[in-house]
Amino acid sequence: MSTPNPATTFYAANRSTRWLGRALRGMQTLSPRLGTRLALRLFFTPLPLKLAARRRAVPAGWQLSHWPFEHGTVAVYRRADLPTGLPTVLLVHGWAGDALQMQPLGDALAAAGFAPVLLDFPAHGRSAAWRSTLPQFVRALWAASARLGPLHAVVGHSLGALAASHAAASGLPVKRLALIAPSPPPGLFLDWFSGSFGLGAGLAERMRAAIERREGVPLQQFEPAWLGPRLAQPTLLLHDEGDRVAPLAGSQALQQALPDARLATTRGLGHRRVLSDAQSITAVVEHVRAK
Q1: What's the pTM value of the predicted model, to 2 decimals?
Q2: How many whole angstroms separate alpha carbon 246 and alpha carbon 249?
Q3: What pairs with residue 156 in β-bridges?
Q4: Could you give the domains of the chain?
Q5: Would you place residue 1 in the very low, low, confident or very high pLDDT band (cuts 50, 70, 90)?
Q6: What is the pLDDT of residues 224-259, one digit of tens each?
Q7: In a 3-state reduction of DSSP, which class is residue 283?
Q8: Measuring CA to CA, which residue among 246, 182, 186, 189 is closest to residue 212?
Q9: Which of 27, 40, 85, 157 has its CA 20 to 30 A from that of 206?
């Protein structure tokens, strides 16, 4: 049985992206080069746009600040009521998410004696820009670490989890990882993206080549086979069995590749509700504070 294409459900449900899909098919016929450029603009744009997240009130007990990053800024939330010197835990969201999705986990970690920091990736939440890439997510993690110092842990969701695993495998100073519903490797998602519009493997290959030229990072480095030998940190993989956005098979492949990984599964929570589930939060906190 073939693996379902999560991108089809998302893009087919969005009226504007259905229109763009028709435009993409027409452009691919007339000019594959221009069609690839249009596809990349859509692929790099988090949908829905971040307008709602920008209007959301800053939660009580948290402070918002903006740090310079590349050609703009990233938004950062920190607890205002904690003493200095606590171990720092950086929490990062996934594609089209925002930092405040991680607040329940951040509050629980603060209660357990850690200093949580919630980061809005570029083009998400209150951060600048409208488009971003996975390698840029990784660079944002490095920039945050440069400001915060060595991290006790990184807790990442979805594409943020994949970015965290690559950053740690590349030497990010962090002791522990909690990867919640990690996204599939970008090569697979490019295939899904292209297939969701009926555009075939040729577009996916052109997009991959363009991304690697632009970002200077081979997308193969986000595959379990590359990450596995380079990730020594104790890692919790937390994934819902029915996740239709990032299938469980991705975490299973990572568990097999990583030398010190434990996979915990949930049922009935899907891709995002796992972030606010009490048992899931407890599992993450216990992993972060384990010796």
Answers
A1: 0.92
A2: 8
A3: 92, 179
A4: 6-48+62-289 (3.40.50.1820)
A5: very low
A6: 999 999 999 999 999 999 999 999 999 999 999 999
A7: helix
A8: 186
A9: 157
